[in-house]
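haha ok so turns out i had the wrong file open the whole time. this is the CORRECT one, sorry everyone. sequence first:
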Amino acid sequence: MLLLIFLSILGLIDSAYLTWEHFNNVLPPCTINRFLPILSDCGKVLQSPYSVMFGVPLAVIGLFHYGLLTLGILGALIYKKKVYRYWIIIQSIIGVVASFYFMYIQLVIIKSICIYCTLSALISFTLGLIVFLNLKKERLELAFSIFAFSYQNFIKWIFFLLYPEVIHNIMVFTGELIGKFPLSKFASGLIIYKDHTLHQKISDINFDSPVGLAAGFDYNANLTQTLYFLNFGFQSVGTITNLPYEGNPHPRLGRLIKSRSLMVNKGFKNKGAVIISQQLKKLHFKIPVGVSIGMTHSENIKTIQEAVKDVINTFNIFEKSGIKNSYYELNISCPNLVHAKNISFYPPNNLDFLLFSVDKLKLKKPVYIKMPIEKTNSEVISMLEIIVKHKSIKGVIFGNLLKNRKDPSLIPAEVKKFKVGNFSGKPTEKRSNELIKLAYKKYKSRLVIIGCGGIFSAEDAYKKIKLGASLVQLITGMIFQGPQLVSQINLELIDLLKKDGFNNISQVVGYENN
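then structure:
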């Protein structure tokens, strides 16, 4: 900050001198230059029509600019508030853009330079570089806030004019292209922000951020090279099944805008384990990638034995392929499997049979179970009692979609638009939080808990973490709030930790539940 204040005052002095010169009709001494008589002629520049804009001398505009910048820097030094840092960033950007323009005018149009004007440009460029390098967090916060405003007030409503599955496919296709584009690696240095306070090692996996993409968005694993650029800390692909499934009959997706929810009815739509494992086996991942595995959506599976065999086959395919995934998810809670209504892994005997079969695989990677949220506390505890007996299972995810179409968090008129499907987003938040709290209180020493459901802000994520979630996942919040949401959550979590006196996000886990 001290260097910034020095440069801004130097710019202020330079602009003040040129202002005095303008109003006193005095030409500065560089008009007669002994060293650069061709390039340097202050009189030619300062007496040109370009020295005045809208009737105001550029020197006066420069004086005003450096004055505002100086006030912003002093405010940041004295009051330590972010608003002044944002002020500095905006003012420095204005200075850099204006200086580029004025240097172009001098060199290309007037074909001569004024040493004093060029000094001001050099000061602005230096200030801009220092601000760019040293105020990265604030710069990103400001940029993401501007993008969020644009998305939430304009872009989103254009997207929402299209059928949900169409826009989903467009976004996945675009994201996949970005991941393949060579310049994306260069651009990542401008938008990726890591902070040690968000780093955790969980199940021997390093997570630079606690925020991940939930299974159900990237169901064909197209975005494993892209989500790093959105500041995701991890992602789950799938849910992937032994055999491919084209998806349930339409509609598969729908929007409940007032309820801040999506109707989901895909039913494990995916290309199947063989194709996706071949697709992934040669890739390296910048963030931990998990493979979500579920039962094939097929009317040919009629018994629990057949269902378990199908799931185990999928695990075997991925294990043999040598994919560098960090973990597995076992999705036992999808409510949209219309061909498997009579097969459930919820009864303790069925769940025990499934997990015993998973244990026999002797997986070296942790397995997290995707849990339902519509079950009662006693039913969930019965399931957790089975889960903790199996060493291959390291954690649980709370949770999946809301099935209760009469839940008070849903707007009835919106629900009536859809005869099929279940609901994500804000309506799942309350029960998700209740089950996180329940599981942490009873099994915190045994299970990693991942919170999923209704995360639309950093405060939503922070709440789940304080209740006992070590990690959180989202999808719907990003669709409603914008793709910058994860970056915003990470940046705001850093501030929330600092405000509450914590040095690392792991210290917050279960803080409200101890």
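The chain has 17 helices and 15 strands.
again sry for the mixup
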